[in-house]
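Structure, all two chains, one model.
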Amino acid sequence: MERYSLWSLARNALTHHQNWQRAWRSPPLKAEYDVIIIGAGGHGLATAHYLARNHGITNVAVLERGWLGGGNIARNTVTIRSNYLRDESIPFYVKSVSLFDDLTRELNFNLMYSKRSMIDIVQTSPKMRDLRRRMLNMHNHGSTYESLSVEEVRQRIPSLTGGGPDSRLPILGGMLHPDAATCRHDAVAWGFARSADDQGVEMHQNTAVTALLRGPDGRISGVETNRGTVRAAKVAVVVSGHTTTITETIGLRLPIKTINLTAFVSEPVKPLIDVIVNCPDIGVYIIQSDRGELIIGGANDLGLSFRRDIKQSVFEDAVVAMLELFPAFKRLKLMRQWGGTLDIAHDASPIVSRTPIGGLYVSAGWWGGFKAVPAGGYTLAHLIAKDEPHPLIEPFSLERFRHLDFVLESGTTTAR
Amino acid sequence: MLLITCPHCGERNESEFIHGGPARMRRPQDPSALSDEAWVDYLTVPSNPLGAVDEKWWHARGCGAWTVLRRDTMTHQFLPRSDDGR
């Protein structure tokens, strides 16, 4: 693999950038692999990278229906954080944030990682109680959360001029999460892909899996694709919103529903907000990108949806909510909108698990899964390699539903 | 914005309605007679189709009626539905 550095940049500048190596190969599709990963998104590519690096398993194919990194890894709102509620969840996300901290170096790929903190703006007492409880539990598990006064919140976010004492929902205070970060989402997919390819993993784009296949012993034996049958003794389904579409081809029903989450961006403006601003009571969050655009996330559309655009009604709600707190943003022009398909499990916690079908693994339920990409890949690779769950994801197996032993999680914005 | 047909008021804007969740299958008559697997399945596994789904809508900012409608999860198109809703 050609290493990226200041030196390689200078050398290639001299040849007018005509001689850069391709970041990954496009090898022919073989008939059999040791492991098939369905889905070349963040979690799938991270799994491929860690399978090769941590477990030495390199005869791996990542099959992707569309193009590499074209699903939810390209459609999220780039927030990395670990302010979760449950004993089971917090250590997992703390691990993910710590893997992100070192990922640019590990992948030799500039993620433009920016550790800039997140501030929750609290406008109701029940939310304040919820976040204080969250804070105490986060401190037990090595995450960071501090309460802020109204003055401190306004000082950190000068453009926050709404939410005064006479407003519908006056600001009561805030919570600061210094571990929170953002980075360039495409770079996460491309960095993991380039590293996995360098270690021998094959990525096959435009290769749609149409069905899972079982052998005579009932175990998984491979997949049917639009390019023919591909065999493998181990198959991992890492396809986000379409998880049930794939698993139902083999009769496996999962406690997952698919919904649509809203996001849009404004025109670029000068530096305005230097933290991630989250407003859990009104259901909107804002990040300013390096290009100056405000990335604005809204709440989810409540009904089931496999669409990738957003609904006018949800979009309007998010804009109205934002203008209550940031009235000056009324003059911003909005440039693009998009939706992502989220798969949410019955208890709103992820599923990283073996299944009743031998050799078939599922990684799903990742609503807000961008932050979980490194740890999700790290632990799924462990599960595939050893057929035993990594301790961090032991609570997130499918078994928990059989015993009604739920890990009830709640998001910060979207689970209103 | 969807146009939703209320049984009393006809076609109205989605902003007048509140989504009431999926129209769930009927609760099993005798849960204790079910296998654990079937009971857990009833409790936790929703239907998640790439296509038609039945769901409840509440005309909260209108006449107040509840109605069950069939909608396509790929297109948001409302589809005809023969039996009456619960």
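The radius of gyration of chain B is 15 Å.
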